[in-house]
C-alpha cells in the first residue's frame, strides 16, 4: 500500500521536523529522496538517518528563495515524480507589529519559494504526464490565526497556488494537493515554547487548541504526505487536507 518504489522525490526543508519525517517515510516506502535544505549539517543528518535505515537519499543544498540556487538544484536533480514544498518560515505579530521587511521575508520563502521550485520541476512532470506536488500549507491557510498576520497571508497564498496548479495541470497528469497542519510538535515549536515564562502552561494551551487535546507529530503529517504522493491517491487533486486535530472545526 502506498508504494513509492523507484519514484524520485524532492522534499524541501527536510533537515528537521515535518520535512525530515516526510523524507524518511518516503524513503522507507522505496523512493529515492533528494533532501533539500539550507542547513547542510541538518540535511546531511537526515540523509544519514535514511541510509542507515537502508533507504536511498542524497543531500541538495537549496535556498528556495534564491532563483539561481533553485535552477542549479533542478539541473542536478533532474526529473521528479514527487515534489514536496515544505520549506517555510513564520512571524508572530498583527499588521501593526509586522514590518515590510517581515512581509518580504515570508513572501520570498513561503510563496515565491513554492512558485520557483514548482516551476523548475513541473515541466518534466508534464512531459512525462505524471507527478504529485504536495504543498505544506497550514491551518493558517484556511482560517485566521491570532497574531500571525504575515504567516496567514502567505499560507492562504499557498492554498491558492495549490488549487490553481491542480486546475491548470491535472489533465496533464500532474496532481497538486496541500496539507494544512495545525499545531505540530516540531523542534521549532519546542524551541518557541521554551521562550515562554511558563513553558508547561504554554504547552498545555497550545495542545488544547486542537479537539484531540494534543499537538500533532511530524510523522503524522508525513503519513498524509505519503498517501498524497502515492498512486493510491490518483483521484485526489486540488485538495486541502486538514491535519489539524480538529482545530478548524470550531472556526
Structure, described:
- By secondary structure, the chain is an alpha/beta fold.
- The protein has a single domain (8-184, 217-246), classed as Rossmann fold (3-Layer(aba) Sandwich), CATH 3.40.50.
- Helix content is 46%, strand content 16%.
- It has eight helices and seven strands.
- The protein has helices at 17-28, 40-52, 67-77, 100-128, 149-169, 187-194, 199-208, 218-229; strands at 8-12, 32-37, 56-61, 82-85, 131-136, 174-181, 240-243.
- Strands 3-2-1-4-5-6-7 form a seven-stranded parallel β-sheet, sandwiched between helices.
- Helix 1 links the parallel strand 1 and strand 2.
- Helix 1 crosses helix 8 (218-229) and helix 4 (100-128) runs parallel beside helix 5 (149-169).
- The longest helix has 29 residues, at 100-128.
- The mean pLDDT is 96.
Summarize the structure.
By secondary structure, this protein is of the alpha/beta class. It has one domain: Rossmann fold (3-Layer(aba) Sandwich), CATH 3.40.50.720.
Amino acid at each position: 500500500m502506498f508504494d513509492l518504489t523507484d519514484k524520485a522525490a524532492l522534499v524541501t526543508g527536510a533537515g528537521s521536523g515535518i520535512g525530515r519525517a516526510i523524507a524518511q517515510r518516503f524513503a522507507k516506502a522505496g523512493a529515492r529522496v533528494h533532501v533539500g535544505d539550507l542547513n547542510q549539517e541538518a540535511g546531511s543528518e537526515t540523509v544519514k538517518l535514511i541510509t542507515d535505515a537502508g533507504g536511498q537519499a542524497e543531500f541538495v543544498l537549496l535556498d528556495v528563495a534564491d532563483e539561481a540556487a533553485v535552477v542549479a538544484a533542478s539541473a542536478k536533480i533532474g526529473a521528479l515524480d514527487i515534489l514536496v514544498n515544505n520549506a517555510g518560515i513564520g512571524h508572530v505579530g498583527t499588521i501593526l507589529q509586522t514590518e515590510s521587511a517581515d512581509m518580504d521575508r515570508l513572501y520570498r520563502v513561503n510563496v515565491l519559494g513554492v512558485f520557483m521550485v514548482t516551476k523548475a520541476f513541473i515541466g518534466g512532470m508534464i512531459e512525462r504526464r505524471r507527478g504529485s506536488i504536495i504543498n505544506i500549507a497550514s491551518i493558517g491557510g484556511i482560517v485566521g490565526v491570532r497574531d500571525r498576520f504575515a504567516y496567514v497571508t502567505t499560507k492562504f497564498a499557498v492554498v491558492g497556488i495549490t488549487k490553481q496548479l491542480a486546475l491548470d495541470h491535472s489533465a496533464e497528469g500532474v496532481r497538486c494537493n496541500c496539507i494544512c497542519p495545525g499545531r505540530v510538535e516540531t523542534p521549532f515549536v519546542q524551541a518557541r515554547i521554551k521562550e515562554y515564562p511558563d513553558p508547561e502552561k504554554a504547552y498545555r494551551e497550545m495542545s488544547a487548541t486542537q479537539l484531540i487535546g494534543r499537538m500533532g507529530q511530524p510523522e503524522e503529517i508525513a503519513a498524509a504526505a505519503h498517501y498524497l504522493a502515492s498512486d493510491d491517491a490518483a483521484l485526489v487533486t486540488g485538495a486541502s487536507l486538514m491535519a489539524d486535530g480538529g482545530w478548524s472545526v470550531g472556526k
